[in-house]
Amino acid sequence: MDVLNLKDKNIVVMGVANERSIAWGAAKKLLEVGANVIFTYRKDRSKAKIEKLLEDYKEKKTAVIQCDVNSDESIQTAFGQIGEQFGVIHGIVHSVAFAHAEDLKNRFVETSREGFAFALDTSAYSLIAVTRAARPFMTEGGSIVTMSYLGAERVLEGYNVMGVAKAALEASVRYLAADLGKEGIRVNAISAGAIRTLAAKGVPSFNEALHRYEEVSPLKRNTNKEEVGDMTVVLLSDLSRGVTGETVYVDSGYHIMG
Question: Which residues bind substrate (predicted)?
């Protein structure tokens, strides 16, 4: 019996920038368990990197579709294309976040109005916009998983406006879960530990955080994109059919420590 029940399911993965991306950890696992994976990208350089990563998965059913999450029109077009090509969407991995570099480097009190709006639009509102566009094609229910971080609930040096955006993202998960539960659609977040990704490079205190995880977490080590990928697959699968509106921590237990 396939306990995951993800074989031949159509899963949209948003936010693969390169092979280090958390989203790629999830996508790789989804391909291994037999899901059809639809990738979205914003810039052409990301498209080229995704296509290169997929060279090892030529026998799998995949698609790569342009989608700018800052544009409702682009989101509608992308999901219209996905719906046309695949019919039903069974799941979404939303791993999209961005803030201007100066809003991470400066003190939080110096965050600009434009920088605040941009970070929240890209990192939190995009989940709502994507869910709305995908909903007409999620006719069999399904599962949506987004990526958060501990900075949503604690002050982490250099995380600044992104912490506020992640807090908004986690609240959005709860409200979307309440909204869509009656349609059989579940919405959850994964709060991942410190992982070396392209996005992490933009956080000034990131290297310090890596060492702290090794010292402080119960498991005395960092997590990795494979562990986050495994949990993403669980949350997309029937194994978690009773779980919605949750933030699940995959951080070697770091968040429980004082």
Answer: 99
Around Cβ 4, how many Cβ atoms within 10 Å? 19
The annotation status of 195 as a binding-site residue, yes or no, is yes
Residues forming the active site:
149, 159
Contact in structure between 28 and 56 (CB atoms under 8 Å) = no
Concatenated DSSP letters of 241-253: TT--S-EEEESTT
33 is in an annotated binding site: no
Tell whether residue 56 is among the known ligand binding residues. Answer: no
Structure tokens at 68: 């700018």
Task: Kindly list the structural domains of the chain, giving each domain's residue range(s) and its CATH number in brackets, ordered by start.
Answer: 10-256 (3.40.50.720)
Average pLDDT, the chain: 95
List, for residues 68-109, the tens digit of each pLDDT value: 999 999 999 999 999 999 999 999 999 999 999 999 999 999
Count of other CB atoms within 10 angstroms of residue 205: 14
Q: Average pLDDT for residues 212-236, to the nearest whole number?
A: 96
Predicted local confidence at residue 210, as pLDDT: 83
> Would you tell me how many other CB atoms lie within 10 Å of the CB of residue 212?
16
Question: Among 258, 147, 249, which residue's Cα sits nearest to residue 197?
Answer: 147
This prediction has a pTM of 0.96
